[in-house]
Write a structure and sequence with these properties.
Elements lengths: L1 E3 L5 H11 L5 H9 L7 H15 L5 E5 L2 E6 L2 E3 L4 E3 L3 E3 L8 H15 L5
Antiparallel strand pairs: 1-2, 2-3, 3-6, 4-5
Helix pairs in contact: 1-3, 2-3
């Protein structure tokens, strides 16, 4: 089931981010090249993106839930002046991948962007 974000989901989204972006996060690649920056891990930097997304546009975050557990999410941002919308983050826990949940999250986000007046 896909549903709107609730503030109580924030930590689950951060946990999913730390798991799912392992191996693909630019923050992790920076850490591999230069070591920890300011004494902080790449996970610390990456999960802050969830805070930024939730603070900027909480109504544009959608959560995948199964049996009451958050298993994935997608975040969106809107620029009403340029009519450009974008998807900064999307993740589905590894054990739930391959079932079409990511596709459903992506479609929900794209529908939201269109309804919100984004043309690009």
């Amino acid at each position: 089931m896909i549903r709107p974000f609730r503030e109580s989901d924030r930590q689950a989204l951060k946990d999913i981010t730390a798991i799912c972006f392992d191996g693909v996060s630019i923050d992790q690649n920076i850490e591999k090249q230069f070591g920890m920056i300011a004494g902080r891990t790449w996970q610390w930097r990456k999960v802050r993106h969830i805070d930024a997304d939730a603070d900027a546009n909480p109504s544009g975050i959608f959560v995948a839930e199964e049996n009451g557990n958050v298993i994935g999410y997608v975040t969106t941002r809107l620029d009403h002046d340029s009519k450009i919308g974008w998807i900064p983050n999307m993740a589905v826990l590894p054990g739930y991948q391959g079932r079409g949940m990511g596709k459903q999250l992506m479609q929900t986000a794209l529908d939201y962007l269109r309804v919100s007046g984004m043309e690009y």
